[in-house]
Amino acid sequence: FILRKAEPKDVSDILRLIKELAKFEEMEEQVVLTEKELLEDGFGDHPFYHCVVAEVPKENQSIEGYTVIGFAMYYFTYDPWIGKLLYLEDFYVMKDFRGYGIGSEILRTLSETAVKTRCSGMHFIVAEWNTSSIEFYKRRGASDLSREEGWRLYEIDKINLLKMSSK
Amino acid sequence: MSPLVIRRRAADARRETELAEYEKVSDQIKITQRDLEQDGFSKNPFFHGIIAEVPEHLKSKDGHPKIGYSLYFCTYSSWKGRAVYMEDLYVRPEFRGKGIGKALMAKVAQLGLAAGCTQLNFTVLDWNKSSLDFYLKQGCWDVTSDLGYHCMRCEGDALQHLAQGDL
């Protein structure tokens, strides 16, 4: 397999993999993002995200005929105490392609990017029921900030944002 | 009270120190004023800041007219697209209870909506009851409680090892 930076032609594979991961998290109906938005937001003048994809040769393609079989979506955030951080938004390898070190290699590449770009750390969220992923991350030295420091993630959706901004 | 001015201005490292003291972790600040200037005000800033400023005759006892701020940046949701992350929100104690925090947050919401964002995310410490109550009143919901997502971090030696492919 190879790991490479995603290109505009990859947006339909990226969206497919986003939906597969969301399905695994039982959140498939929450994905409202479109290929058009992914294209504009990832490959314009000021990208909102970066993406790496894992690709296999044609002879190893998936049952449905896909060669892009894994991906990671990330962007840079900022902690005013320690500076730049790399935020891992999505990270997924198709079921049939697990156990070959593809996920490990993706994570290694991303952490290399983090170190090269002077990031102090890599942040991400994991569902607390996802014990196999939590173990995977803990083996690599990740710590659970929600449990250890009491941080809770909050969200305000668009309706409430509109209400708030018009007050 | 005289009209409050909210401006996008240079982040003030001193405010960061105050917020960190409030959160009881001031020994963890590694960033300097220079870092903030470089990372926030170059061609591709890693963060944006807005400041709440009062007129001269209303300034704080120690002589500062800048009495509150918010630090935010754009992120990306693989489910919904563009999002805004509010990293810091702070108002000096003697200026609370006057709607300044709400005004700062409303401004971040406005700027986020203008940039095409459909959600605003942030984290809160679980012991911070007054902040939790404030946010719930604005229409926020607790993603950690409701969906079980935990904030995770990989940093320092663990990040270096991950980048080198050690396990």
Automatic annotation (TrEMBL), chain A:
EC number: 2.3.1.57
Family statement drawn from the similarity comment of this UniProt entry: Belongs to the acetyltransferase family.
Cell division among keywords: no
Domain (N-acetyltransferase): residue spans on this chain: 1-163
The UniProt record lists the keyword Acyltransferase: yes
MF GO annotations: diamine N-acetyltransferase activity; spermidine binding
Oligomeric form and interacting partners: Homodimer.
Alphabetized PROSITE patterns for the sequence: GNAT
Domain of life: Eukaryota
Top EC category: transferase
Pathway listed: Amine and polyamine degradation; putrescine degradation; N-acetylputrescine from putrescine: step 1/1
GO CC annotation, single: cytoplasm
Keyword entries, A-Z: Acyltransferase, Cytoplasm, Transferase
Organism name: Triplophysa rosa
Catalytic activity: an alkane-alpha,omega-diamine + acetyl-CoA = an N-acetylalkane-alpha,omega-diamine + CoA + H(+); spermine + acetyl-CoA = N(1)-acetylspermine + CoA + H(+); spermidine + acetyl-CoA = N(1)-acetylspermidine + CoA + H(+)
Main location: cytoplasm
Pfam families linked: Acetyltransf_1
Protein name, UniProt field: Diamine acetyltransferase 1
InterPro entries associated with the record: Acyl_CoA_acyltransferase (IPR016181), Diverse_Substrate_AcTransf (IPR051016), GNAT_dom (IPR000182)
Subcellular location: Cytoplasm
Gene Ontology biological process terms from the UniProt entry: spermidine acetylation
TrEMBL record, chain B:
Highest taxon, organism lineage: Eukaryota
Signal sequence bounds: none
Domain N-acetyltransferase: 20-167
CDD domains with a match to the protein in the record: NAT_SF
Alphabetic keyword roster: Acyltransferase, Transferase
GO molecular function, one term: N-acetyltransferase activity
Family: Belongs to the acetyltransferase family.
Protein name as it appears in the record: Diamine acetyltransferase 2-like
Taxonomic lineage: Eukaryota, Metazoa, Chordata, Craniata, Vertebrata
